Amino acid sequence: MTNRAPHTDSHVTPPGSQTVVPNAKRVLIAGCGDLGQRVARLLELENTANRSWGLRRQPDLESTKDIPGLTLLSCDLTQPSTLRDLPKDITHVLYTAAPNARTEADYRAVYREGLEHLVQAVVSPALQRVLFVSSTAVYGDHGAQWIDEETPTAPKSFNGRVLLETEQWLRSQSAQFETLTLRLSGIYGPGRSYLLDRLRAGQATAPAAESHWVNRIQIEDAAAAVLHLMNLPKPQPIYLVTDSTPLPMRVLYDALAKLVGGPVPLEGPAPASIGSKRLSNARLRNSGFTFKWPDSREGHAALVHE
Hints:
By secondary structure, the protein is α/β, with parallel strands linked by helices. Helix 1 crosses helix 5 (219-231), helix 4 packs across helix 6 (249-260) and helix 6 (249-260) runs parallel beside helix 8 (296-305). Mean pLDDT is 91; it is low at 1-18. Strands 3-2-1-4-5-7-12 form a 7-stranded parallel beta sheet, with helices on both faces. It has a two-stranded parallel ribbon with strand order 6-15. The protein has a two-stranded parallel sheet with strand order 8-11. The longest helix has 19 residues, at 104-122. The relative contact order is 0.16. It contains 8 helices and 15 strands. Helices cover 30% and strands 18% of the residues.
């Protein structure tokens, strides 16, 4: 592909406004954390007849009591015996689970094996679509080159390799239901202040300008994109879910440090296990999706000043 930058959105439309809304859904959200709960809220706003069930090891009923259409269930995706009594006639599965520990064994148990356990437990003629939230970790190091869904994958570490294996397994099931892989970039938003806190305290470093590119997505946009793709007629099998403005880490960190009143970050190495990537979201935008926050600098500024 060429190194021409993709178009950046300059206007805003309501989430899913360009997508035909289908009949009522029965959605199973595996690993129902912040992203899953936001999707559940959007499902309720879309159609009060929609119903969603969130699977968690330890359900936090207090955090979801204001989502009328969501019911939390206690399940362990690594233990098939806990998945025997799930709701019937599920129409959509959103798999957003995450491992407790950053080890290959935990990743494999939760992603590759956990997804298979869940699909086996809910597959039926009613199941229309399974959406798997993956990561851009499936790509290697591409410097400043633009990459998209067709770029060859080359994970740098075990997490990317396990995610890629899981994507491949899910696609092998496409004769039974539609399968979508959503490769999300780094999420930011309310409750995710770790980076801003470190920049404010002068504890974060960044490599020299242009040497390492990073990509971000605001959590509201991530949730809206999930619902958009859940509804999209005739989707592609893979979508990069990332905003319209990838940036050199140095540029982003300098801007955020200024935003929070911290010092200019000292020069330091790029993250060892995360390759430089400059991601194009053209496929997602061309499907009709419009970002509320196409530039993470503006998205972070809104968070700081709210």
